[in-house]
Amino acid sequence: MPSAREYNFDGLVGPSHNYAGLSFGNVASFSNVKSASNPKQAALQGLAKMRALAARGFAQAVLPPHARPDFRMLRRLGFGGTDADVLARAYREAPVILACAYSASPMWTANAATVSPSADSGDGRAHFTAANLNNKLHRAHEHVQSTRTLRALFGDERHFAVHDALPSTPAFGDEGAANHTRLAASHGDKGVQLFVYGRVEFDPSAPAPKRYPARQTLEASQAIARLHELDAGRTVFASQNPDVIDQGVFHNDVIAVGNGNVLFYHEQAFADETQVLNQLRAAMDAAGAQLAPLRVDTRDVPVADAVTSYLFNSQLLSKPDGAMALVIPHECRENAAVSRYLERLVGEGGPVDELIEFDLRQSMRNGGGPACLRLRVALTEAESRAMHQGVIMTEALYAQLAEWVETHYRDRLEPKDLADPQLAIECAQALEELERILGLPGLYDLS
Ligand code: SUG
Questions:
Q1: Domain carrying residue 21
Q2: Which residues, 6+ apart, have CB-to-CB distance to 41 below 8 Å?
Q3: CA of 285 relative to ligand 1 center, distance in Å
């Protein structure tokens, strides 16, 4: 089995990052609606995380933001005339639609796609399926650029297959890697892919949340497993606990994360915990590995604390010495129960022996923690050479991107600023320059 490394592709926060309250079911997005954002700080916070993890020797890369506002979407919805006319009319008549066209939500790259490494797929290639994100208007247009970006980075068809998003209809609601975890003895070994869904379209008797939407369907997860040519014996589909969706767990990565053979999860994460563990044990056995469940009890960390602190939206990273580090947001330290739990976790001699903490407040205020900000792509040595090299995080790329942010980003955006035609011009200029920095001419279809 060739050895492989896990690259974390973090989303570079775009220049229009703002708080528009667009995500019903995501508590942070709703609580911070219409407050002023700081796009410059948001992008620098994200870059600081990428830089620090790259400096530690973790394989780190960057995924570029999308062109915003999406004029094509606005024109399709009937706002016509010059670009300035389009913005003015949309702001006047439908400010929420304008906010959707402007959202910097592609920063949460865990939702960009589902990725299956070559070790698991029938044709020995790494597979990517862009997520249709069809539950929310501001995210439902992301897949067009996500597919284009993934094809620009992973265009070598001898090694990679990049699939179009699933049909954009409720039956195939797909939120990408946020509801998908891979478990394996090591990144290069055959592994188990765990798909967690919130609802079953064609079985109305299956559990489903009552208050907030379930964004991922079983049918979507099954289609991805087929497209990626996964082995049925090493693929597990698990129902998320609908009660926690109704408490603000809008993606499974808000309540569970896996890495290596470790599944770090809250006792209330799944509709049937015992069944999920049994299925995972059997699948891991088929992969020649042994599951190591790391369960957090409600009495130690109630679901509400998991949601506000984003304890499970952490990154579990394998270190060269075999132990794991947990990458957490500052908010975990501000929650007494979570902070106490974490002290115990790293002190108890288990798989996690280090906490790496970041200030990601700008993203967190929209419900995006460390794990939302990254897409995991395990690559063999040959595959990592075959991908586009200009997105790999280095000290030099960090310096260029930080300077680019300083030059092009505003440090304050309020809802009314989305009507300013100058903002659209600034965003376009920034991305033109970014194509050059990343060595990706034609990345954006700006025609
Ligand atoms: O889809 N927030 C995102 C957060 C995505 C988090 N991703 C993962 N858990 N993997 C969402 O709800 C808020 C945008 C706004 O309200 O302006 C937003 O889209």
A1: 4-68+103-438
A2: 362, 411
A3: 35
Q: Output phi, psi for 274, to 5 deg.
A: -60, -45
Closest CA to ligand 1's atom 8: 372
Dump pLDDT digits (tens) for 267-288: 999 999 999 999 999 999 999 9
**22 Cα nearest atom in ligand 1:** 16
* 92 within domain boundaries: no
Using only the alpha carbons of the chain, give its radius of gyration: 21
Q: Give SS3 for 307.
A: helix
Residue 29 is part of a domain; what is its CATH number?
Answer: 3.75.10.20
The CB of 120 under 6 Å from ligand 1? The reply is no
pTM value > 0.90? yes
Short-list 52, 49, 41, CA closest to 15: 41
| Predicted pLDDT of residue 247 | 97
**Total number of domains in the chain:** 1
Q: Which two tokens stand for residue 33?
A: 């609606």
Annotation marks residue 357 as catalytic: no
Long-range contacts of 273-280 (CB under 8 A, 24+ apart): 275/238, 276/194, 276/236, 276/238, 279/236, 279/238, 280/183, 280/192, 280/194, 280/236
Which pair of tokens denotes residue 318?
Answer: 């394998």
Which ligand 1 atom sits nearest the alpha carbon of residue 19? 17
Measured CA to CA, the distance from residue 218 to residue 199 in angstroms comes to 6
Element (H, E) at 342: helix 336-347
CA distances, 74 to each of 90, 100, 139, 447 (Å): 8, 9, 14, 15
**Does residue 144 sit within a domain?**
yes
Three-class secondary structure of residue 259 per DSSP: strand
Pair of tokens at residue 200? 């079953």
Q: What is the pLDDT of residues 22-81, one digit of tens each?
A: 999 998 998 889 899 999 999 999 999 999 999 999 999 999 999 999 999 999 999 999
Residue 84 lies in a domain: no
**Nearest in space to 194 (alpha carbons), one of 219, 223, 225, 172:** 225
Look up residue 176 and give its amino acid. G
339-351 tens-digit pLDDT: 999 999 999 999 9
251 is catalytic: yes
Q: Quick check: is 445 in a domain? A: no
